[in-house]
Request: fold
Amino acid sequence: MMIHRRRFLAGAAAAVTIVGDAPAVIAQPRVQWRMSTTWPPQLDNLQGAAQRLGQLVEEMSGGRFRIEVFPGGQIMPPFECFDATSKGTIEAYMGAASYWTGKDPAAEWFISIPFGMDPQGMAVWCYQGDGLKLWEETYAPFNVLPRLGPGFAPQMGGWFKRKITTIADYTGLKMRIAGLGSKLKGKVELVQFPAPVLRDLRKLAAAVIREQSEKSPMARKVHASFVKFQALLGGWEHVAEGAYHQLLKG
Reply:
């Protein structure tokens, strides 16, 4: 979720007043925002997250702060919401960071990357590492203040008519894949990729990610922070999550 910087600060100040001085709140003008998302109303898990945010803000502020949430396409085309927020046409939007790589390639890392961190790791990088600071720095030229929204868990590797047994099976395939993984070109039964295929994909991904990280100074800076934090987190993830995932396989 992205929030317009100046309006966000004004809203935050109003929220503090609500908690600290109830009589003063009554005299304060009502805060009204418009948020457009990149998702259609039918995508109720993601669009629903935006709707729940609006409901929570209104409830917590006692109705003084209201965010009117619009699905993509209702008040503007879905992918125009970033620029609309940047210009102040609307106060906020919600969408995946990978949609804005045209602004700066560094945006890719803020929805994670192939073989990157899971939603828990991304949240820790943002709030205990440099992730959020770097995200704010990436979006600062556009007058947009980013904040974490819905977590995006690892997605399926693809839906294919034939099984993938070697890396060569990707030759000539067309497939849907989100984010930076889309740069790796190459009958709904659920099959895990063979270990050799995953190893080959990881090698290819590392090369493509390095190449992408050189496309802007900000991408280089974000990539360095991401890799360093992922290495720091790796040992703990193995201890904290490894046994759980082995149990699920059992």
About this structure: The longest helix spans residues 217-249. Residues 3-25 have pLDDT under 50 and may be disordered. Helices lie at 5-20, 22-27, 44-60, 81-87, 119-128, 131-139, 195-213, 217-249. The longest strand covers residues 31-37.
